Amino acid sequence: MRGRFPASGISMVIIVCGLLLSIPSAMALTCDGPPNYVGFNFASGSGPTGNAPYLLSLQGVAEPSPGGDPVTTWYWDFGDGTGVLQGSGTVYQNPKHVYMNAGAYTITYRAATSCNLWTADKTYPITVNPPTGGITINPVSNVHYGDTLLLSGTDSSGGTIVHLQTVGPSTPSGTKVADVPVQGGTWSYSWDTSTLPEAGTYTVYAFTQQFWQSESTSINLMGIVTPMFGKISVISVPSGSAVSLDGASQGITPVTLTSVSPGSHTVDLTLAGYKDYQTTVTVTAGQTAPLSVTLTPQPTTGGLTITSTPSGATIIVDGAQKGITPMGIELLLGSHALKLQKAGYVDYTATVVVVAGKVSPIMVQLVPLQQTTATLGGSLNIISIPENAAIGLDGIAQGTTPKSIQNVKAGSHTITLSYPGYNEWTGTVTVVAGGTMPITITLIAQKVMTLPGSPGTTILPSGTGSLIIQSTPTGANVYLDGEGRGMTPLTLSNVTPGTHRLLLTYSGYSDYKETVQLSAGAQHTVTAHMVAGQASPGFEATIALTAFFAVLVLWRSRR
Questions:
Q1: Where along the chain do its domains lie?
Q2: How far apart are CA 278 and CA 264, in angstroms?
Q3: Per residue, what are the HEC states of 182-230?
Q4: Of 76, 86, 367, 452, which residue is most buried, by most CB within 10 angstroms?
Q5: Please, which residues bridge with residue 203 across strands?
């Protein structure tokens, strides 16, 4: 039996040999040569020609070696002196390259297997034409990494989409930024730079959809150790409010204000039909300060409290009888024709202006019929904000506001109002015999500051201007920003710089309106030629008597 294998042993040898023979030859690295084939395809939007700056996108193609060794390494030289690109992975197999200048170039490329066996060099010509100017991208100044910056430009190629891509230290082969719609030949996109892996210098390319023309700009995203700026997130109810930061427009709510320096800032919100809103927001570097505001609807009506001496006069507004003095009434905003009638007295007529949310007092001294206006004077009703301002009439003290001054000689008079901490107001008014002149003045606060080296405080007057107002005919009522200031001819001093609404009214003439722009230290003259005709009509609704008496008691207590 020696020299023979048991049957089971022979079977085992056959099985083992069979397993060895069944192993695929491809599982072994033979290192028998370089790849069988190497080449490339142009990706979408690329080709052998383009306009500078030209972003070329390639897709490398290769076959394993005859023995099945895989292709692992790629080599590219784009021929424009920018160096070579060599390595493993998709970035190196499918590269992107930008030709910045026009010219003829030759691409040299090859591939190697895992055994580091290389194919022979392959070459392919590329032609780059001069820029066409069909698309532009605006330069962007240096910004800090993490900020949101605005990319913008034009596209005259007729396309509807601009493709944005970027190349930088962390994106050597390029990456998509966004596809941006073209509107009216322009495009813009807000780019959050925190989407990039790191700070550094990046080139952003804008490509037309129509012809794949392109233009680029370089952006230096500077890294910062400590955030230099903060943000303010502004939300309003309702939305759509215009936002300004320290007087500069910032957009429409909801909006986030970026690159805001640390410290206190003034934020203003304005929306038609609502009261203006202003607040101070403190910003901390690296943080977002929230601001949520519910706007208050702007009143569409105001009120008048009408008293007469003697009382019991019939009140007629815009031709409609309203009641008997004393009385409070509610009216829509704007100017209204007022008439008071009482037996034995001269009719009193005037144009009054109703201001939103305010109740204005109208105090009238009726003139008996047996007296002539030539022998009578007029009266002044003077109100100031703040109250208790000292009144001077032609240099003679007259007490404090609010106050009604009776029997003032007809003609021009100089009025001064003074209050501690506020600029003195001086104006010229014309008193009409038998008439009552309502005057409402908002005094301007002085600026108080501590000067270096000074042990106390120094009061600096605010920069103001003056208005000289004339009219034909003279004697027109003057209202500045809804407040009665006197009759023409009239000089208003210490008027704050900026835009003001001027209204002149005269019985039997159409209202004269003008928007006046006044600069600090300037003197502006307005000459109004009023046109005979019907004054602007108004509307009204009567206030409850209880509300009127509450206002009347408050007014009398202040006197």
A1: 37-129, 135-222, 230-294, 301-450+464-553
A2: 13
A3: CECCEEEEEEEHHHCCCCEEEEEEEEECCCCCEEEEEEEEECCCCCCCE
A4: 76
A5: 167, 218
Comparing C-alpha atoms, which of 466, 480, 484, 487 is closest to residue 530? Answer: 487
Indicate the length of the chain as a whole number: 559
Residues paired with residue 378 on neighbouring β-strands, in sequence order = 408
Tokens of 202: 């990046």
| DSSP strands (E only) in 228-318 | 230-237, 242-245, 248-252, 255-260, 263-270, 277-283, 288-294, 301-309, 314-317
DSSP letters, 420-449, are TTBPPEEEEEEEPTT-EEEEEEEPPBPEEE
Domain over 230-294 is classified CATH 3.30.980.10: no
Q: How many CB atoms lie within 10 A of CB 44?
A: 7
Asked whether the beta carbons of 467 and 524 are under 8 A apart, the reply is: yes
Yes or no: domain 135-222 corresponds to CATH 2.60.40.10:
yes
The dihedral through the CA atoms of 175, 176, 177, 182 has a sign that is positive
The domain 37-129 having CATH identifier 2.60.40.10: the answer here is: yes
53 in helix, strand or coil?
Answer: coil
DSSP 70: P
The two tokens of residue 548 are: 């009127």
Helix ranges (DSSP H) in 78-139: 90-93
Q: Residue 461: CB partners within 8 Å, gap ≥ 6? A: 423, 446, 447
Rounded Cα distance between 386 and 422, Å, is 9
Q: Which amino acid is at 332?
A: L
**What's 296's DSSP letter?**
P
User: Which of these, 152, 140, 218, lies nearest to 185 by C-alpha position?
Assistant: 152
> Tokens 């952006």 identify what position?
219
Q: Could you tell me whether strands 359-365 and 301-309 are parallel, antiparallel, or unpaired per DSSP bridges? A: parallel
The model's pTM is 0.30
Cα–Cα distance measured from residue 332 to residue 336, given in angstroms and rounded to the nearest whole number: 9
